[in-house]
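fyi for ur records
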Amino acid sequence: MEKEEKAEQVLAVLKQINPHTDFKTETREDGSLSSLRWIDENQDECYIYPTDIAIREDQIAWFQTSERDNHLLKVYDAGNEFVWEPITYNPVFGCYCLLLEWYKDHLMFIYQEKHEVYICAVKDREVRHFKFHGEEIERKGNLIAYDTYMGKIPGKVRLIQIPELTELEPLDLPEAEKRGLIPTGLNRFDGFLALK
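which gave:
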């Protein structure tokens, strides 16, 4: 599903919940969707980026943030709403969505806050998470490779299996490279952790 189609579905839900709110779509120079924006009941400007939307059948999820640093994960499933505020050291320092994706029977939400990266598995209104202090990460299928700032394992790559969030035995670097699991920094294109 294209980003614009996802945004239209989210916009329909938002308009249903807040019928008197003026929602705006912002576009880039090339005409592609940049964000959905609105002013909420507290006069805070909220926004959702198209890459921060995940849709599966009647399940719609998005990550929204605001000018006043209110960060929320919202999930709508058959008319039921689930809202979760991501764990952050201090929301003013930011909260950046790296991945929002339905995977197997979970919603996977990976985000970066000031000090750590959180890998979250959401199912049945429960959020389980694994966090690490670092910013090097890679994903292939159900495996996420990551490295930490401190306590690096020479010649090895740390692994976690999703959606279970099970820590696995670290991989030797040559095997990790062969499998495309060498973690690198976060300064990459939107959606770089999406299932390919």
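The chain has a mean pLDDT of 94. thats all i got for now
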